[in-house]
Amino acid sequence: MPATLFVSDLHLSGDRPAISERFFEFLRERASRAAALYVLGDLFEYWIGDDELEDQTADPLARRVAQALGALARGGVPVAFMHGNRDFLVGERFCETSGARLLADPAVENIAGTRTLLMHGDTLCTDDHDYQAWRKVARSREWQREFLAKPLPERRKALQALREKSKEVVGAKPAEIMDVNDGAVHEALREHRLTRLVHGHTHRPARHALEVDGRLCERWVLPDWYERGGYLSIDDAGPRLVSF
Ligand code: MN
Known about the structure:
By secondary structure, the chain is an alpha/beta fold. It has one domain: Purple Acid Phosphatase, chain A, domain 2 (4-Layer Sandwich), CATH 3.60.21. The protein has 7 helices and 11 strands. A 6-stranded mixed sheet has the order 4-3-2-1-10-11. The chain has a 5-stranded mixed sheet with strand order 5-6-7-9-8, covered by helices on one side. A hairpin with a 2-residue loop joins strand 5 and strand 6. Helix 1 runs parallel beside helix 2 and helix 2 packs across helix 3. The protein is globular and about 55 Å long. The model has no long low-confidence stretch (mean pLDDT 96). The structure holds manganese (II) ion (MN). Manganese (II) ion binds next to loops. Manganese (II) ion (MN) binds next to loops.
């Protein structure tokens, strides 16, 4: 049985063309031989609405990524996508173009015979109270409706302001606050009665072993693609982190 592959935190944007090319190559080569591809959030550095896919003034990268995923899916590799904190506005039109099945966060999927808990990871960072407050607003129907109703140039401007502010706030925060909270990890595994969790977001690729209610569990954290990139591969022999 071929392996199922997991990626997240690619943060694709027009500013970093080398990473985009590496991703296209990954889709053509490694992913084309996979059982399935899961993208667990933050595929894009930002996403301000699916209408960018058709906008002539928008960066063509969004369309290229959707089409490259679509080619993989049409080639017989099922593609699933979960929202991250950067690209939570990815919607139906993107999923149609890319052939991706939109996953809820959290999602439970059968991966190589093991029921596995999948998350982006930001909801586990419960010590970051400012972020959790902002997340609640940004994930509300009202905020999204209002934001998406704005013309694209206005959305781009609003995004720029948000990013500047986020840079300041994140720079001033101690690193521990932006990692997952152990209690939240335990709670997630306990609630779903599962022993394997895969998530991204923290950019701290690793395997963590832990015990929840007497059961041995493992938490796999995906790598980001800022400098190197990589993926998690799961087959009958178990999970394995691969970096480029
Ligand atoms: Mn993230």
